[in-house]
Every structure is written in C-alpha cells, then in structure tokens.
Amino acid sequence: MTSARSAVAALLIAAAVTGTADAADHRFRGYAFDLKTGAYRYTEVHRQNVDGFRWLDGSIDYYDPSGHKIAAKTLDLRKDPQIPLMKLEIFKEGYVEAITDVQADRYTMLKTADGKTQTKVIMKTPGMGADSGFHSAIVANFDRLQKGETLRFDFGVAGQLDSYSFRCRKVGDTTFDGKPAIQLLVEPDSLLRLFVDRLDLTYEVKTRYLLEYRGVSNMHDDKTGKAFNVRIVYTDQPPKGAPADLPPLQ
User: Fold this and answer.
1) Least crowded by CB within 10 Å, which of 20, 76, 180, 181?
2) β partners of residue 98
3) pLDDT tens, 153-201?
4) Dist CA 204 CA 202 (whole Å)
C-alpha cells in the first residue's frame, strides 16, 4: 500500500470508534464488506472504556469470515485524547505498528515489517491527531462540523512513520438505521487528494457514534497484499451477508 493510501486508511478504519454518554464499558462489532463486490471481508470486535464522550482505552480484534483472529489492536488515550498509545499486530504478516510514547510536545512511532523495526519521533502541532485519535477530534468538533465548518489538522500515521495534513467537512444530512445522521468527507488537505481516494463517514447525531465507514482498509488481501477497499457498518444487529457464527463480544 502506498504511503498516501496508508495515511488515509489509518485515519479512521484503524479507529472505527464511537462515543457514548451512558456506558462505561462499550462493546460492539463492525462488519466489513468489499466496497466493489460486496463480499464479506472481516469482522471487528471493539471494546471501549469511556467516560461521557471521552474514550479512555480499549481494544479491537479482527476476524476473517471463518472466525479466525487475524489481527489485534490495543489503545490508550489517557495521556492525549487525540494521540493514543497504541499497538496493531497483523499476525500472518508479522507486521506491527505502534505509538510507544506520548509527551506534551512529541510522540514516538514504531513500525515492524519484513523483519525490520524502525522508529521516529514526531513533534506535535496544535490540534494534531494520530491513529484512532481522529475520532476524538471529530467528537470534539462535532458541533462545528454540523454547522458546515471544515476541520483541518495534521495527522500522524505510525505505519508510515510520518504525518500528513487532512481536512474533514460535512457533505449532507441523512438517516441510518432510522437514526438522524450526518455524512462527513475526509481527504488530504493538499494535492494528494488528486491521487488518494476519499473517506466517507456517517455519524449519528445524538450519540456521535460512527455508523458507517467507506474507504481503504488497514487489513490486506492475502492474494494481492493490497489493502481492501471496504464498507464497514456498525449496527445493533448483524447485517445481511455477515457470517452466521460471529466472534463473541468479549
């Protein structure tokens, strides 16, 4: 996957999170379908520890359609709600990406691929996010986005040991599963947008839950080694096409 596409993928698919005002321990699934063919690709199992709308820590486990665990991620956003300590492992590939240290003015990223480990220190800029902290930025600026303002920010991508400029804006109102929602567009805030596919996100208005994600994935096709392009839905009930035997919420 190219660096630009990796940057976009890490924006939210790595995070695919929700905020909640009435639950301390929130567990749910994400159901990932191929964006072009509709084939089922994988299941996400999320566990989140939250305080009001503040996401504190949690984990995401990834399962293939047959129920085998293929990847795992842990997150801790207590030091910085927009730059988490995190670690993602894709088992079969021996791939790891992480944010190993977060300080007031900087943070450290790590990547292991093809048996080689690299690290890099990134200096923070105002409003900067990284990895799953993108969701925290959306929640913190939700009212502004609803009013039509554009959110601009620098975003650190551990998988590329680098940061990029992005922008997010509202493109419409809708309903999803009978719930009032808004549609958001995320794209590079540079000429990269001419070469990188956009992300399309649907958020519930009342809870600020992520309901649907459309874009490039951080999971790869075993046959090609390329990242999937996916539609992931976060619904109360498994959607049509999901496996009959799903991984437990634990």
Assistant:
1) 180
2) 87, 110
3) 888 889 889 998 889 999 999 999 899 999 999 988 876 665 567 899 9
4) 7
